[in-house]
Amino acid sequence: MIKTSGVLHFTIPVKDLDRSEKFYTEILGLTKVRRNSHMVFMRDGSDYFVLTHSENPIEPNKADKHDIHSAFKVTAEAYEQAKTFLASKGIKVFKEEDRHHGTFRGKSAYFHDPDRNVIELMHLTEPPISEMDEKAHS
Prior knowledge:
This protein is of the alpha/beta class and 138 residues long.
């Protein structure tokens, strides 16, 4: 077995690097680290992800399904501000929920980036819960 020590980065496929870089920096407030001809390296705090130009069609979910998505943590105050800000930019939150069960618990809002990748913003109301945590509390 390989023993990893964390997630280095994840990749989000995009069609237009300029448009996506602008969305992720100006809408989500994330930091561009560097860019090459087919990737924009981004940072959110101490976490990284890469916007990568895809020559393939990008259709991770049908309609407003959200099983395949990327989630970002926000504070309670930032969560409410984000919903107002997204609306002011014409970005529709197509699903919102307040989860009290499962691994990640709290308020979440789902919306699309310019390539219809689903983005989730979540205000965690408690630390993530593992199966062992749930069994200990039952």
